[in-house]
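Predict fold of YheE family protein; 69 aa.
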Amino acid sequence: MLIHFQYKPLFANEALPGWSISFFFRGVPYKGTYHKDGRITWTSQQPPEQEEKQIISQIHELMLFHVYK
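Predicted 3D structure, encoded as tokens:
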């Protein structure tokens, strides 16, 4: 489960897509860039390979809820 999930626009003009994201997973902080096509570029360490799909799925759900209402 992701905790303390935060996002903010990459650009001052919020109409331009792209968001900086950050969260904790099992006590480890992660940061990345969420692109308009749903890709995530990690700007910190990458999540463990065996859990990355689950984490990305949770991020997509949160972004759909918060950004693409």
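The chain has a mean pLDDT of 90.
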